[in-house]
Write a structure and sequence with these properties.
Order of helices and strands: EEHHEEEHEHEEHEHEHH
Number of helices: 8
Radius of gyration: 36 Å
Distance between the termini: 96 Å
Strand content: 15-25%
Strand order of the largest sheet: 6-3-7-10-8-9
Structural class: alpha/beta
Helix content: 40-55%
Shape: globular
Length: 275
């Protein structure tokens, strides 16, 4: 059928057919567009959490995997510390074996303090170097070194921390007194002495199982007062206690002390660690 239009005639059926084709095409384009948009939204949205029950062996496997990952991270950190130490970039720790030479320190059951101090200090050196620290020993033999020289050496080398190792004695009648004490200068607020002392104290108690004695805030110890870096002095046991004196003379116990001191130092240099 045709209809009259200005300028001529048009086929109405043809016009209707063309309009139908156009509508169908628009519908297809619109449908495709909507589907594409929905797919984009679905891909952009975060995946919903999957809450699956974890029991028995699956839970143990997950825990084991997590522990292995933590151990691997610790190993990576220690390797990095060791690389820095080899390049001369790791923290420098002064390990001070108290007394020495003509200054024997206290005496207990034939055991001189100066000897126990040095034996433990050498073990601390090994433990710290394994963890990637640089270590400066103030004495590695039975020699006398004045306390003024000790502080001056640490300051001149711009050390990052100072740990002095000593043994204790009890003047009273009760010779069963035992355990670990740690001393620091709390009056100097410019250095983080208290945190260093507390971490070393806690970790050495933990590694040895020794009796926990006081954490002393004392400002009049020369080596902790005149050093410019964070510093503390640890008394690792009482030579006046016969049982503890024998224990302090053994390799096994000295190694536990050294591991505790080294662990406390490492924790100190991990800024997020606080106990």
């Amino acid at each position: 059928m045709y209809e009259r239009k200005k300028g001529g005639w048009k086929n109405r059926k043809k016009k209707n057919r063309e309009a139908g084709f156009l509508q169908a095409a628009l519908l297809v384009i619109l449908t495709v567009g909507i589907c594409t948009f929905m797919e984009m939204v679905a891909l952009a949205a975060p995946a919903p959490p999957v809450n699956l029950p974890v029991k028995g062996k699956e839970k143990e496997a997950m825990q084991t995997s997590w522990m292995l990952e933590v151990a691997e991270n610790v190993l990576v950190a220690q390797n990095l510390m060791m690389e820095k130490a080899q390049k001369g970039e790791g923290p420098l720790i002064v390990v001070d074996a108290g007394h020495g030479g003509e200054d024997s320190g206290c005496l207990g059951f034939g055991t001189y303090e100066k000897d126990i101090n040095l034996q433990i200090a050498l073990r601390v050196k090994q433990c710290l170097e394994k963890r990637g620290f640089r270590v400066m020993m103030l004495r590695e033999t039975d020699e006398f070194l004045a306390i003024e020289e000790r502080a001056e050496l640490a300051n001149s080398h711009q050390a990052d921390a100072y740990v002095s190792i000593h043994q204790n004695t009890y003047e009273g009648s009760d010779k069963s007194v035992s355990g670990i004490e740690t001393w620091y200068d709390g009056a100097d607020t410019d250095r983080d002495n208290e945190r260093l002392a507390r971490l070393i104290h806690q970790q050495t108690i933990k590694s040895t199982g020794a009796n926990e004695r006081m954490l002393w805030d004392i400002a009049d110890l020369y080596v902790t007062n005149k050093t410019l870096m964070p510093a503390c002095l640890i008394e690792t046991g009482f030579l006046t206690n016969q049982k503890e004196c024998r224990l302090l003379s053994t390799d096994e116990y000295q190694e536990k002390i050294a591991e505790g001191i080294a662990e406390g130092i490492e924790m100190y240099f991990q800024s997020e660690t606080d106990m």
